[in-house]
Write a structure and sequence with these properties.
Blueprint: H1 3-19, E1 37-43, E2 49-53, E3 62-67, E4 71-76, E5 85-90, E6 93-98, E7 102-104
Antiparallel strand pairs: 1-4, 1-7, 2-3, 4-5, 5-6
Length: 115
């Protein structure tokens, strides 16, 4: 193989590694997105489950499926969430869920209206 082809293949491999999604173990996640007021949220508005995602995008890799009615910890880093997602923890996994599927959950055991 000539030097040009070898160099070109090396560059292509390096670029592909930069572009591939980097999915780390959930325990290795940075705490930056999981700061702020924490409260309980309950999964609503779905048939069976919602997806816990690695990043706040719909095409981000899935970390877990969270069943309807499950209570999770929501980190309310902003009123609107991050592009329609909230940072949450579920079974010690840190990820993101779409805001429309979470409702504020009171300690009394029932969702709180208007939140």
């Amino acid at each position: 193989m000539n030097k040009f082809c070898s160099f070109g293949c090396t560059i292509l491999l390096m670029l592909s590694l930069l572009v591939l999604p980097q999915v780390a173990c959930a325990a290795e996640r940075s705490e930056e997105d999981f700061i702020g007021a924490a409260y309980k949220g309950i999964v609503v508005n779905c048939h069976e489950w919602i997806t816990l995602r690695y990043a706040p995008t719909a095409d981000s890799p899935a970390l877990a499926q969270i069943p309807l009615g499950t209570v999770v910890v929501v980190f309310d880093s902003s009123v609107e969430g991050i592009d329609g997602f909230y940072p949450v923890t579920y079974k010690n996994l840190k990820g993101y869920c779409m805001r429309e599927y979470l409702k504020y959950y009171s300690d009394a055991g029932a969702p709180v209206r208007g939140r």
